[in-house]
Amino acid sequence: MFTGLIQETGSVLAVELRGGVQHITIHAPVLAPQLHLGDSIAVSGVCLTALAMAPEGQPDRFEADLAEETVRRTSLSQLAPGTVVNLELPTPAGTPLGGHVVQGHVDGVGRLLTLKPVSQGGETTDWWLEVEVPEGIRPYVVEKGSIAIEGISLTVARWDGARVSVAIIPHTYAHTNLRTHQAGDLLNLEADVLLRYAAKLHEIQMHAREKSPELTLAYLITNGY
To answer: From CA 66, how far away is CA 71, in angstroms rounded?
Structure first.
């Protein structure tokens, strides 16, 4: 599990096709030395498995494979040398939950519509981010709820049923890959998993009620009790 609090921005060094699988190398001088073979790490909101540690004797990088499903359903399909990615290690048990529950299981990609400064204060100003949300995720977006965009835990400020708007503080703008994106780019989106579970439970309960009417005297008489 992750919390959506980005610990480092890394950069893609290489994207290679190895035996039909996309293989990436990421430069991450802060987090790479902490990884062990098989560890999980969130790369722009996608949970990946760390493979080669310190390849070619260089401890400031790690490697990972991208499954076909990952390439098809996430913004990692856009990776190229030089791409900046958000990185986060899993949250240890007992650690304060600073953001929200993020699984690293991307629900889909949204299209960046705008990223504009609130005032003309350079990077010291807040920013306004607007993203078009695909239909499959829309039922799980609510105003003032949580959403992970590129692995960043953010609060939904406005929601019109198709586009989500969030406020980006200067720290988030300066320490994540949002500053590298432009209108039209694809961004990884993960809906609040707790809201998703709540919606699923509600669906099951409503379906059960349709099949099992409320136990009333009329129901018992009708059915021969």
So the answer is: 6
